[in-house]
Amino acid sequence: MYFLITPRLRIPLTLLVVACCLGGLVQPKILSVYVFVSAAMAAIGVLWAARDASWRNACWMKSRVGLSVGLLFLIVASISLFWFVPQDSLPVDRVGKLAAMGLSLFLLLVVPVGHLTVRAIAAGLLIGMALVAVVLIENGLIGYLGTIFVGPPNTGEYDNFYKAPATILAILIFPAFLLYRSVVSAGVATRWGAGLYCIAVLGVLLSGHTTSIAAVLIGLLIAIVARWAPKSVGGLIILGVFLMMTVVPLANSPSNVNALLSATQNHSSLQHRVLILDFALKKIDQYPVLGWGLDSARSLPQGSDRIVDTPDRLQGLDTTLLHEGVARLGQNLPLHPHNILVQIRLELGLPGVVATVLAFVLIIGRIVRLPGALDRSVCFGGLVAAMVIASVSYGAWQTWWLGSMVLMTFLFRIGLLGLPGRSQTSAHHTRF
């Protein structure tokens, strides 16, 4: 039985995915809209499939652990509002957004998906990513040539208008590879699929956005290592998450910060990140157990003040190492710490650490149990690439960034299902 997607709808769905990719290039913030619309469509499919008692039981057995961890994180975030420290209005809307994103992720992960849908999304994603990549390549080359013939910009930092699209493309490169494999395995347009994927990769590498380039290269390195040692890589990731959230705040000291300031003396953006991290870690020391409360980073005392106006927070630091632009214009904490793990520890305290580590244990466990070595390595690469970006950019609760993570997870899921013999729907005779 066909539902939602029939052979006649495959081309329209492909074109819709292409349009969504181009829409994300123009305005990345609409990614959350894509997530919620996709989740609404998935909800119809879930309700349709839920008529089958065997499907309901299988879905519950497969999803109960993930639902429990997600619910734990949502409860921790909600309860933290009771000890929200800043004297501002409670960010109740953030809890609602987290719940909506979590529900959307659940629906997209359990909805039955057939090969028609996978191939249509794969084709649309590869075409859309290639078109976005062409724009990024043009933008990156113009910036590079401008630096050669005109010189570096006076601001000391090249403002890349397409930073967010480059970021999104960087994290989608990995699930897109699985989708490309699903298209190739079906014997469909092998050459143009490979060409489109290569253009997408070049789009990131030539975008001029250092973080996105580093994320792809580090993710690729981890993917190579994980192909032969998945359990070791998974264990190191979990250990790194735990140490970042527990040991790093304790190890913060003026001597360590001064060493980082010296190393980043000629890079204003990196040095500002060091000072932001130092400020956030000092705030963790004030409320180390329960944290400051969900989304409190936006309104911490002295957070929005300029560094030059708060000399007391520089006590013990060598101010002669500070870049002029950072000291004069930089804020102590512009909206968030630019590190998702530090932000969770800052706002949700030790309960947030427990929930986050459990979430990573669940994710790593699912990846390690994948049947194919290449599948495991690509998933590890995508996870690490996303962690690299989340460790230096964006806030933990930014809706479009959360939406990007949801879409990446969904694309990983259908990329794995699209490979021969992986479809979940054959047992239920339902195609989506």
Helix and strand topology:
Elements: H1 10-26, H2 31-49, H3 53-79, H4 92-110, H5 115-149, H6 163-185, H7 190-205, H8 210-228, H9 230-251, H10 254-263, H11 268-286, H12 324-329, H13 340-368, H14 373-392, H15 399-417
Helix pairs in contact: 1-5, 2-4, 2-15, 3-4, 3-13, 4-15, 5-6, 5-7, 6-7, 6-8, 6-14, 6-15, 8-9, 8-14, 9-13, 9-14, 10-11, 11-13, 13-14
- How far the N terminus sits from the C terminus, by CA atoms, comes to 9 Å
Instruction: Please report the number of helical segments.
Output: 15
Query: In which range does the helix fraction lie?
Result: 55-70%
SSE series: HHHHHHHHHHHHHHH
Write down how many β-strands occur, each being a DSSP E stretch of 2 or more residues.
0
Sheet/helix structural class = mainly alpha
Strand content: under 5%
Number of domains: 2
Rg to the nearest angstrom? 22 Å
What shape does the CA trace take? Answer: globular
- On the 0 to 100 scale, the average pLDDT is 82
Main sheet overview: none
Give a verbal description of the structure.
Helix content is 69%, strand content 0%. By secondary structure, the chain is mainly alpha-helical. The protein folds into two domains: 200 residues, no CATH class; 171 residues, no CATH class. The termini are close together. The C terminus is likely disordered.
Short description:
The chain has 432 residues and is mainly α. The chain has helices at 10-26, 31-49, 53-79, 92-110, 115-149, 163-185, 190-205, 210-228, 230-251, 254-263, 268-286, 324-329, 340-368, 373-392, 399-417. The chain has two domains: 7-51 and 84-208 and 398-427, no CATH class; 226-396, no CATH class.
